[in-house]
């Protein structure tokens, strides 16, 4: 039974992330109009240094960009908002906790967006509660 079990590939996890994102409340998704979701195995060395991470497993995800409330009409062609999910740290976290992989991916998405917009943990918990497992 377990001989055919394998962790999701980068592409499979990216599909899962897009599916989890599409299930989030519309108002929350609207904060990130045009967001690009990318999955990589690990953060880059530059990101690890910038975030002062001790290990490549310390970061599960990262939001890069400027959210709608912070954008200005005077901005010159800003880069798109991006959410980075880091597959190997997410899988490591998942293996150590009693949660579905989809739940972990959704949690990381909500928290990366939520922290960027200054939402409290209670706000983010309420948003996650709106989505059925």
Compact description:
With 133 residues, this protein is mostly helical.
Structure description:
The protein has 133 residues and is mostly helical. The chain has one domain (10-63, 79-130): Zincin-like (2-Layer Sandwich). 44% of the residues lie in helices and 11% in strands. The protein contains six helices and three strands; from the N terminus they run ααβαββααα. It has helices at 10-22, 26-30, 45-50, 87-96, 101-116, 121-129; strands spanning 36-40, 61-64, 82-86. The protein has a three-stranded mixed β-sheet with strand order 1-3-2. The longest helix is centred in the C-terminal third of the chain and has 16 residues, at 101-116. The protein is globular and about 55 Å long. The two termini are 25 Å apart. The mean pLDDT is 86. It holds the Pfam family Zincin_1. This is Zn-dependent protease. InterPro entries: Zincin_1, Zincin_1_sf.
Q: What's the number of extended β-strand segments?
A: 3
CATH fold name: Zincin-like
Q: In order across it, which strands form the biggest sheet?
A: 1-3-2
Label the structural class. mainly alpha
Into how many domains do the coordinates divide? 1
Strand % is 5-15%
InterPro entries: Zincin_1, Zincin_1_sf
Organism: Rhodopseudomonas palustris (strain BisB18)
Protein name: Zn-dependent protease
